[in-house]
Amino acid sequence: MNLTGGEFFSVSESNFVLDTVKVAEEARKVSGHIDVVIRLYEAYGGRGVAKISTPFKIKEAKLCNVLEDAEEGSVLDPEGSSLVVPFGPFKIVTVRLLVEATRRFVAGVSGLGIAAFAGLHLGGHLLAPVAGPGVANSFLFGVRELYQSPLVETALVVGLVTHSVAGSAAVQQTIKLKQRVTAFRGAGVFLMFAVPTHVIATRIVPWLFDTHVDLRYIRDSMVDKVHPKLSLLFYPYYIFLGAAGLYHGIVGCVSGVRIVFSLKPSPVSFSPTAASSANARTIIAVVSVVVMVASIFAIVGPSAVDPDWDFKDTHTAQIWHASTSERNLTGNSRKYHNYYSNSSQPLAMISSTNLFLAIFSLFTAVVVQAAPAPVPAPEANPVFNLNHIKLSRVPKSVTWNGHYNDYFDDNVRGHKTAAQYTGDGSQCSDAAPAYCTLPDKNGASFFVQCHRHHWVQLQCDYGFSCATDPISGHPYCASAGHP
């Protein structure tokens, strides 16, 4: 599987361009490692060395030929997660790396375990708009028998801490490589702060007071008559908390499943954002928010004594009425009820902090990431340095209104062109207009177009000159016999 771009590698020199990231053809199978090949090319005619950085720890590095065979004297000396690679003018450099992906592997595997718990926990809340809060309560009490058992709960705590540590390392690498924070990682950062708060409020405090919590306490925090303004913060807080958990969990599971079950792991397997399409992630994000809004308003809708809150099974009802029913609060249950009733203000302050973190994470992931890179306007008749060009891989037999411009070896109707990258490094939009340029001193005819965000100069074959199609306005190579 190929991957172009800087998702996994960054290069220090702008003229040394990362072209391809792929798994080696005859990849070695080493536990927790990936045998990966990267290809780069020098675009401007320069010579020197460049530093390549990656989220992974590099164990081995060798220069290879295009067949991915190591060259003589090709062993490079990596420094942790970076590597210095020499380059020459217009040369393609192929590097084969054995990288350690243990942290990503640990994050993926531990994330699957947490997702199994979160599916049960959030699943109970998501039943509220479908079957009513009573069914949701009964479901939550039932699954608690499973995930609140000492062995399972201990494993969940260990998994959560492990996942947080591994995820923090990934975020640090993102900052180190100066990459944009994705919505997936932004949600993860928010959850690192919000989940411990949620655990303290809904698990540790009830455990200290030997009582049970159901969705009525979630409702009470949002309709607190003592602190009505502060209680409003719980609406967006719960929505963000649930939506972030759904989005981070679903997108992360795609990566985790590929890590665990892939027989030939690739770098894409270790990136949740690369393992699923942008459209799929957008749909997941929208659906996560919608279902959480529906769930929260379904929970807050009925009053605390509404029959919709009645438990749907006798066993759960007995547990509730024996410990936390407002009609029968005694001992520690009374203490807990008083504590919880007087905790809206500090809990609301905590939720507002987490809400700010959520908004900041979403702003970073959505607004900053969506900002387009600046595109310089094309010059009317730029001067190209023909000593600083590079052959470009462009498609063959491109048709513009019946006129053919073939690239490299193919000939159609006598038209032949050779595509070359310009050496000035300017960026452009693929929608930018193409145009003819002045002939050079030897009379060669050229026209310029934008290809893959780079200005590309195309040279007409001998005997042909650049002309502009009167209908499409696009330049092409024409001769006296082929107008």
TrEMBL record:
The keyword Membrane applies. The keyword Transmembrane helix applies. Keywords: Membrane, Transmembrane, Transmembrane helix. InterPro entries: Gal_mutarotase_sf_dom, GH38_C. Residues 15-95 form the Glycosyl hydrolases family 38 C-terminal domain. The chain crosses the membrane at residues 105-131, 151-171, 183-209, 237-261, 282-305, 347-368. GO terms for molecular function: alpha-mannosidase activity; carbohydrate binding. Pfam families: Glyco_hydro38C2 (PF17677). This is Glycosyl hydrolases family 38 C-terminal domain-containing protein. It comes from Physocladia obscura. The lineage of its organism: Eukaryota, Fungi, Fungi incertae sedis, Chytridiomycota, Chytridiomycota incertae sedis.
